[in-house]
Here is the input.
Amino acid sequence: DAGITQSPRYKITETGRQVTLMCHQTWSHSYMFWYRQDLGHGLRLIYYSAAADITDKGEVPDGYVVSRSKTENFPLTLESATRSQTSVYFCASQTGPYTEAFFGQGTRLTVV
Amino acid sequence: AQSVTQLGSHVSVSEGALVLLRCNYSSSVPPYLFWYVQYPNQGLQLLLKYTTGATLVKGINGFEAEFKKSETSFHLTKPSAHMSDAAEYFCAVSRMDSSYKLIFGSGTRLLVRP
Here is the structure.
């Protein structure tokens, strides 16, 4: 199916564990983004990528790592999960500058 | 620096009443503006966008928004609320730099009373 998909949809992990959230898009959009959504904060940008092998930090990058070896994939890794990283994570893609973003369904991550 | 302010974290209207969700932006250059809707347990969907040209923008599901440069506003309206409009709404502005990132407001939750 065409679109942007995130996996898993729900994840519970323990403090200190490494966890990877996957994002895959079928459109070959150049730009991809990771946001986290928390009550009272709206959406905050974690990392973004303008193309394969090009990534950059957003507002709240600490504790996260990204890679983009292929245009269609943009995984987000929490190196050592903390309770403050409990959140809903959204991946998004854009065709180019000043265009709308297309969002995945989100991953609800709980760190216990 | 660009920013977005959404007035009112919650707005409650009766079914059939006018919906007005407020968004003000801050930008040193002409902005690109967006409204998104988020239904429970789903991602964000684009409602409408303003880039250039006509200042009154029509979107999906009967929503529209008017870009008012003098007021730095981009309020979202719908003449008659429907129960299915209950959701969270986000205003966003596109950063006019190489990052092409969207800056989101904190969101407004719309409640529709029967």
